[in-house]
Amino acid sequence: MGITLRNYKLLSDFDRVNELLRHNFTKYQQNGNIEQPFWEYAHTHPCFNHKLTHRFGIWEENGEIIAVACYEMDLGECLLITKNGYEHMKPSLIEYAEKELSKEVENQRSLDIWVFDYEIQLKETLLQKGYKKEYSAPITVFKYENGFQERELPEGFSIISLEDENDFRKINDVLWKGFDHGDEPDDDLDCRRLMQSGPNFRKDLTTIIKAPNGEYACFAGMWMDGVNDYAYLEPLATDPRYRRMGLATIALTEAMKKTKKLGATYCFGGIREFYHDIGFETVCHREKWSKTW
């Protein structure tokens, strides 16, 4: 039958792409694909544009999904996903993305494409197509074989999981303030419920540091791939009033220990210096290549 192209069907294709990502992943993200939890977390994020997911491109061969062109949150950006051995298709995915996933403002189109620093041939293709590298960020991992940093929990604070307590208002407060949105959180608690709606969301892995007054001082969301041997942190936030107390290190370490018992050997982290300070290592870089026309 050959390779066919169609649009993404949110309700029926979501988990099929999950499986593509799980079974076409190389340790430390060395084959150009995003992590499965990255895909799922995006779908449950309040900023994710569900209304335009039909613009995603799905390539199939004999009924199997072999490639996906999609955005993380909204039009104007593109992620390129391929089955191992089908990386040569990415130029075709770029052509599709320019038509379907680009953003138009005042009769001008733009597109940001995310690639990895080791994808030399793909970056040459982007150069030929008029793209320029605009941004680079490290992909960091904590290798469990190196051992965990042990920090003492401050007096009066306690460690809980969402199985122990799941107060959406307190979650909204710590994430709102922890990501520096201001001192007065909004009342959109449904967005916090949405973020727990993913089929692989784990209440038991999500770790919270509770302050003596009952507030959530630090929140560490944690995911498992389910097939590969890694954990995925998202999100991690500390209320500014409780920073510089070691709470993020304690919450993250506790969550990683839980995933180690489930078979994970390393965890993906973030880009801030905090991660390197507690033992995360850079394994590659994620680059944003941009074009306007």
Automatic annotation (TrEMBL):
GO terms for molecular function: acyltransferase activity, transferring groups other than amino-acyl groups. Residues 158-293 form the N-acetyltransferase domain. This is GNAT family N-acetyltransferase.
